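Subject: design request, 295 residues
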């Protein structure tokens, strides 16, 4: 427990940074966390919504070191859930978490990022712009006051909040021994449903999800079926525009914006602008190496 002087300083700094604190059983505290084991005594949040306004919520989580298939699947699942009016909860980490948030943002509903440190310490640093998008459309949440840096022990601790806020947990890719599997164990202790995406049996990053399926987790065969299984209506999504030259040029390829501009004989700024629009629509995804491909 922090000394009284540190507590006072934490709330003073929070106020200056536009961060709000809500206390256990108090106004704004999410009902989903009231009955879970070891609920956080206080939640700090920053964003358009408070944690109590994020229902219904589903967690979409997975490995930081994920495959391209995992990235695409996390983004598609999250976009579909978001289009169905669901708040997608994840941890802002590299890999699956980041794609889950991006897909949720593309779908239009709020998304919540539960962080392993103070809300003024964005981790990983390269997700700073993503964190700002989340704050504008959903909220950033932490049980740690401003100034606290993420540490190895803080991530397992925050995992109980990710699952606790959610009606169910969807695991896209996970190794057998990983932080994701810690979240799964916590979710089961909290009485949450667990779903998993089938993965390549030759990859270590999917052994955890495949074993979850063997042990009785719900199977995710498509984003639409998952939404239906969870009791959410899946909206009708318009077909991909076949006449778009950028989409046509990306078909079956992983290429840079510069190469794409050469192929289309268009200036790079025009191509980059169109790629951003298509990313926001959930039709194109940027992958490591500055490459673009179709979702």
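Subject: RE: design request

Done. Sequence follows.
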């Amino acid at each position: 427990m922090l000394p009284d002087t540190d507590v006072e300083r934490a709330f003073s700094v929070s106020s200056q940074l536009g961060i709000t604190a809500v206390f256990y059983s108090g106004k704004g505290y999410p009902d989903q966390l009231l009955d879970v084991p070891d609920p956080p005594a206080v939640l700090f949040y920053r964003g358009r919504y408070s944690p109590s306004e994020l229902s219904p919520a589903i967690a979409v989580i997975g490995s930081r070191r994920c495959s391209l298939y995992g990235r695409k699947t996390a983004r598609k699942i999250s976009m579909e859930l978001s289009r169905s009016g669901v708040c997608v909860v994840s941890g802002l980490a590299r890999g699956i978490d980041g794609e889950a948030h991006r897909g949720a943002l593309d779908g239009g509903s709020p998304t919540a990022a539960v962080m392993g440190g103070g809300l003024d310490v964005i981790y990983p640093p390269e997700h700073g712009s993503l964190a700002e998008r989340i704050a504008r459309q959903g909220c950033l949440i932490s049980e740690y006051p401003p100034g606290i840096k993420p540490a190895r022990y803080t991530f397992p601790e925050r995992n109980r909040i990710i699952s606790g806020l959610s009606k169910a947990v969807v695991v896209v890719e996970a190794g057998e021994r990983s932080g994701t599997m810690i979240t799964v164990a916590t979710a089961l202790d909290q009485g949450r449903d667990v779903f998993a995406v089938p993965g390549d049996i030759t990859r270590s990053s999917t052994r955890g999800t495949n074993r979850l399926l063997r042990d009785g987790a719900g199977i995710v065969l498509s984003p639409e079926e998952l939404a239906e299984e969870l009791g959410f209506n899946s909206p009708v999504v318009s077909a991909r525009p076949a006449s778009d030259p950028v989409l046509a040029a990306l078909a079956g390829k992983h290429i840079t914006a510069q190469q794409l501009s050469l192929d289309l004989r268009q200036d790079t700024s025009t191509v980059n602008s169109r790629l951003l629009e298509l990313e926001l629509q959930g039709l194109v995804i940027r992958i490591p190496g500055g490459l673009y491909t179709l979702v």
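DSSP finds eleven helices and twelve strands in the chain.
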